[in-house]
Amino acid sequence: MAYGDYDGWGDYRGWRPYVSVAQRRRQAEREMQKRKKQGHAVSPVIIEGRAIVKTFWGKSWCENLEGYSDYENRLPRGRTYVRNGSVVDLQIKPGVINAWVSGSELYEISLTVAPVAKSRWKSICDDCAGAIDSLVELLQGRFSKGVMERICRQSHGLFPTPAELKLSCSCPDGAYMCKHVAAVLYGIGARFDHQPELLFRLRGVDEKELIVKAGKGLPLAKQAPAPARVLGGDLSDIFGLDMGQSSAPKLPKPKLPKKRASKPKPKQTASNQRQKRSKARAVAWESST
Questions:
Q1: What is the DSSP-derived secondary structure letter of residue 156?
Q2: What gap in Å lies between CA 178 and CA 75, rounded to an integer?
Q3: Which sequence spans correspond to the domains of the chain?
Q4: pLDDT tens-digit profile, the chain (289 residues)
Q5: pTM of the predicted structure, to 2 decimals
Q6: What angle do helix axes 75-83 and 179-194 make, rounded to 10 degrees?
């Protein structure tokens, strides 16, 4: 009897025994605790409520995945797995995604993502110039519909195409995308809900470049001076001037009216003193007679 054939007794032969969600979680928790003790960082995907994603970036990532016919048959099982907490660890780094998913066993998933082509990234930056005022606005997805459509454009936006993804899982499923990989792909969208900057890290681009070019379409009052119009270097070298420590011109001191000099008192010599005493005695004698 072939692997997985029905044996006529109400069961399939060759399939792994069913493992409940609760049992998978306990098993995964034990394995993750072992990894923590070994010094590995562990970051599970936790979904609160039925909605896997809630923000602009998370929704856009998932909608992009669901738009590719290559993925449509395998994604539904992935949604179930990510909702029940099966993605017990998810690490997003430049060009690489590593994850552990709890199934009948604990499976290791590895995804590699090609960096965005320089020409495509330049086109995105040019098309969005002047429409994004700040990094906060960008990461929160608070901009026009036109910008959203440009960044999320299928095959020409920031999200990867199937050809730019390489998928690998340690499970025995021979499909290109198994349910464990699909769960990780949805888990990435959930992670973007809280850390949208990871999308730019994953694709190997700097989101600040979108903000640098924003000044092209803004009013003059909001624009920074163009680099060509900013003077650099020593002004004395540029203009050939001998400039002191202060660049402010020195003004002449105002002229004040001259004070009239007082005549110096004559020095009193011994002869003058004798004459004064003789005159004083003469005046005293005349007044007494």
A1: T
A2: 9
A3: 27-36+46-219
A4: 334 433 333 444 455 667 777 777 777 778 778 878 888 788 999 998 889 999 989 999 999 988 887 777 778 889 999 998 899 999 999 999 999 998 888 899 999 999 999 999 999 999 888 788 888 888 888 877 888 888 888 888 999 998 999 999 999 887 778 999 999 999 999 999 999 999 999 999 998 888 775 444 443 333 333 333 333 344 334 334 343 444 444 555 666 666 665 655 655 566 667 677 767 776 665 665 5
A5: 0.66
A6: 60
